[in-house]
Amino acid sequence: MSSFSFSHFSSFHLCILFVLVLFHSCLSNQNFDDVLCIKEEKQALLEFKRHIIDEGDRLSSWVDEKNDCCKWARIVCDNMTGHVHQIHLRALDGHLPDIDFDTSKEFEEASKQQLKGELSPSLLDLKQLKHLELSCNDFGLTQVPEFIGSLGNLRYLNLSSSNFSGLIPPQLGNLSQLHTLCLGGFKMIVEWLSNLRLLRHLDMSTVDLSKATDWFQVINTLPSLTKLHLKNSNLLDSHPHIPTLNITSLTLLDLSVNPFTNSLVPRWIFSITSLVSLDLSYCDFNGLIPRSSAHSFHNLTSLKWLHVAGNTFMNSSLVWKELSSGIGSNLSSLDISQCDISSTTLDSLHILPKSLGNFCNLRDIDLSYNNFHNISLTSLFESFLECKSPRLESLSLVRSGLSGHLLNQLGQLMHMKHLDLHLNLISEGIVFWQSRRTSSSNVRAPEAKREIGDRILLKLSMALNIEASVIWTISDDLRVCIL
């Protein structure tokens, strides 16, 4: 009896406790929902808007009549204190000149999404602002205001591609809490970067660093850095004197499209063993990579993404052997287009196709604009098929001097979606690919969608091959558009 009473008593109190917890939770949520933004911060945002030209009405919800600025578009507040924490005002997905618009009307509509005008110092009243995103707008060649360096709580700042001009103010070096800094299209002196000791992601692509001879020494003072973008930054010196390398936590390094004066790949790169992504495209590196294991690709065991297009150092069989026998099995993306690789410069005629059999985790590879006149398309496919489970999704072989013809072995590449064979010597080929699934997508020839077995090849391009003949079967429901 006493046991029953104790059990009944315990269950009763557990039910009461559950109801109290549920009530407290609902009350707490209600309180969070009722938290309004700080009045002074609301006025600061309205003052910011008054200095902005907003042709696309992106700030239409920013009006005085709506009391809670935390519910305005592109604003994120702390739901306990009501302080504004984040402002998201990125205009476009990409830099305006790089976006492909079909009509002038589309271009005009996209331009309207760009904020214009000037930045108001009223932002200083946002005491808890941590995230400021202003990229891809048009601030009319005005200078970045110095007051941004006083937003001391910022963790994230993006000013890229927003048509600012002049030097970046050194006051940005006061933002010691920054984790991410994205700049673009500026001229700058980099010394102040050394103050940003917590910086993890730095993007200075298209920033003119031609006068910054100490660029690497400064960046080497940022021990927390994991991602570094310096694409097209007019860098000249790739071999700075550094007694100790401190940026050993880098996982991403982009040095592409820089006119380095030294022809050798910098040795310090091979000491960053944490690298997952490396882009050295179009740096005109042409010297041999040292055979020392401490200064070679063999040391980059974490690398999965390697793009070295436009560098002729890749035409060495030594480099190929090092890649294929070392890190090749880890790579998922490899771009060696325009590297002047040819069958005659390799020590062995068949070293290229044979070595590709070691890249079994590749999802995309670009071999375009090389010289493979003595290599057949068949041998390339056979090399990829040496892998037990080839994962290849995209293969580009534009103007590579390939001969031969497509075989049904293409159907064995189970994940293939994109195959580009433009401008080759594929003179014959009869391929029967039996379709077993329908698709409502347009099929375009020579850039077309083909179905292979019960899969779909999203793009096959064979334009300007010699007498290329491809026969395929398609389902009755597939609409064909021959252009």
In short:
The protein is α/β, with parallel strands linked by helices.
Fold and architecture overview:
This protein has 483 residues and is of the alpha/beta class. It has a domain of 183 residues: Ribonuclease Inhibitor (Leucine-rich repeat, LRR (right-handed beta-alpha superhelix)), CATH 3.80.10.10. Helices cover 17% and strands 14% of the residues. It has a 16-stranded mixed sheet with strand order 2-3-5-6-7-8-9-10-11-12-13-14-15-16-19-18, with no helix packed on it. The chain is elongated.
Name some characteristics of this structure.
two-stranded antiparallel ribbon, disordered N terminus, 16-stranded mixed β-sheet, 20 strands, elongated, Leucine-rich repeat, LRR (right-handed beta-alpha superhelix), alpha/beta, 483 residues
SSE topology sketch:
Layout: H1 2-34, H2 39-50, E1 52-53, E2 75-77, E3 84-88, H3 104-112, E4 116-117, E5 131-133, E6 156-158, E7 180-182, E8 201-203, H4 215-219, E9 227-229, E10 252-254, E11 277-279, E12 305-307, H5 317-327, E13 333-335, H6 351-356, E14 364-366, H7 377-384, E15 394-396, E16 418-420, E17 443-445, E18 447-452, E19 455-461, E20 480-482
Parallel strand pairs: 3-5, 5-6, 6-7, 7-8, 8-9, 9-10, 10-11, 11-12, 12-13, 13-14, 14-15, 15-16, 16-19, 17-20
Antiparallel strand pairs: 1-4, 2-3, 18-19
Keywords: Glycoprotein, Leucine-rich repeat, Membrane, Repeat, Signal, Transmembrane, Transmembrane helix
Domain Disease resistance R13L4/SHOC-2-like LRR: 122-234
Signal peptide: 1-28
